[in-house]
């Protein structure tokens, strides 16, 4: 009785209401107020400071019906929820989750569900109609209380305004500056709300529905725009499938369903923001009954380095001998997989059941098995999905570990359904899948843990063709743990062994290099979530730089615990991760040199052997210059490390 009375008071008094139709959720950090009058709005405060002003929520069907227009509340209820989520291949192996939920049911068979977590707030529609619906648009607004500073990515202009590979660099501006852009912004979008904290706009559990873009809503606001449903398609020269025309609606949906979460992820500081788990814990639960077969690991990658191998007695290229060499290299250095990328099958036939004659896939797979190395295959996404059952059955029986699928560049409903379909089919055949040309993570890796990675990031491949005037990779890298990397794993593809200073960098497509130091590249293996992570350079360079290679492969790709412990957006970042009793620390800076102090208070009892990979004395002039040293540390130790311009460091800690 007392609990019921408490919630009655909460619903009526935690927000000021003029009409008795205002509802509230509150925790130690945030308060969400929902107002139901002629329209439905939500607003957010942090520490008593307004962040989100009343922002409209509605959904319009093709028949003109509007959910949220003159709504009538039938029932509103609030409850506290606690749950534990087992999280295979996520950056935490287990999540103990608490949240407060407000459920408002409206006349007409629909509802809005709001959730308030310690690290954010979210809402979604829920419907219970007897028939399916065609949705013309969904109104979702983010009207900020002030013109806050933001960091945002905008799509590169295309003929199809909804087309994007989601691989753009962050722009620093204010909310109101969105009005000056002619293309869409896309999530996650970072907001610095000053004393109120830091926020990310994004979404999760996007299934049978399009992903969202953001555009100016006037003043200090963003509004959501969804890509229209494709009407017809064309195929390009690679057999990739893109919309040719679009309909006048965004989705056709079942009558009874839940919709994607619209969310504000919260952190008091940048560091707190980076440590959120909002997307994963609001995603649909795992649909794979047995996940024990799903594993992460390192992988070689041939495409970035253009298969340039020297010191061998064969012509390197897309051929059986070359990939056996990759297998031998992987086995020697403890690399769990090789990836055979673009070129192993013919674009004339687009038949994934047959490789080109020069590249005998069954022979390579058998050879890899004998060496304890897995094989993954790349494919154009449309080519893969068009015969997905045959292809998955064929290669699963052969012993291939998984697929990397590419060239999508969309987030309309038709493609989102394809993403789920590919995840489901590959899971049935015991295959992993890595999506490229892909939108940001929305929690699919929880629903289908065999989805081991996503691109959707301005990754290292961009330096093959983007010169130093148009790419600032150290700044980009520092941004990612607080933005794109804060919502899920990303296939950034680190590991360059040719490391250039700012002055010496050149974009050379077939002999690529990185911006920043060698230690910066090594640190990325700790900093970025990537359950299957690439070693992007050629075996020739890795063999020459064997000390670096063995250090990289000593860092796991799946962890029990992960936490950013220091940093600031646009400046630097330091992350710790734990696997069993061992710990790993990584840190990087921008082109601004920096002295960082690592506090080892996160360690348990006892002493640890710390192997430190850091910038050498001349790394400011010679990017490849590094030093490795070993110390004994404990939970009371602190370590001062100097990072050169574009530099970084990594620490491997093993209990003595």
Using DSSP, what is the number of strands? 38
Low-confidence stretches: 1-14
Distance between the termini: 55 Å
What's the tally of helices? Answer: 13
Helix content: 10-25%
Helices and strands: which structural class?
A: alpha+beta
Gyration radius, in Å: 25 Å
Shape: globular
Let me know the largest β-sheet: 19 strands, antiparallel
**Strand content of the residues, in percent?**
35-45%
Tell me, rounded to a whole number, the average pLDDT: 96
Verbal overview:
The protein has 656 residues and is an alpha+beta fold. The chain has 13 helices and 38 strands. Helix 4 (320-333) packs parallel to helix 5.
What is the structure about, briefly put?
With 656 residues, the chain is an alpha+beta fold.
Main traits of this protein?
disordered N terminus, alpha+beta, 656 residues, seven-stranded parallel sheet
Write the layout of secondary structure elements.
Blueprint: H1 2-13, E1 22-26, E2 30-36, E3 40-46, E4 49-61, E5 66-67, E6 73-86, E7 94-106, E8 110-117, E9 120-128, E10 133-143, E11 149-154, E12 171-174, E13 185-192, E14 198-204, E15 213-216, E16 221-225, E17 230-235, E18 241-246, E19 251-253, E20 256-258, E21 261-267, H2 270-274, H3 278-282, E22 297-301, H4 320-333, E23 337-340, H5 361-370, E24 374-380, H6 381-386, H7 388-398, E25 402-406, H8 413-428, E26 432-435, H9 444-447, E27 451-454, H10 473-479, E28 499-500, E29 514-515, H11 518-527, E30 532-535, H12 539-544, H13 546-553, E31 561-568, E32 572-579, E33 582-589, E34 594-599, E35 608-615, E36 626-633, E37 638-643, E38 648-655
Parallel strand pairs: 22-23, 22-30, 23-24, 24-25, 25-26, 26-27, 28-29
Antiparallel strand pairs: 1-2, 2-3, 3-4, 4-5, 4-10, 6-7, 7-8, 8-9, 9-20, 9-21, 10-16, 10-19, 11-12, 11-13, 13-14, 13-15, 14-21, 15-16, 17-18, 31-32, 32-33, 33-38, 34-37, 35-36, 35-38
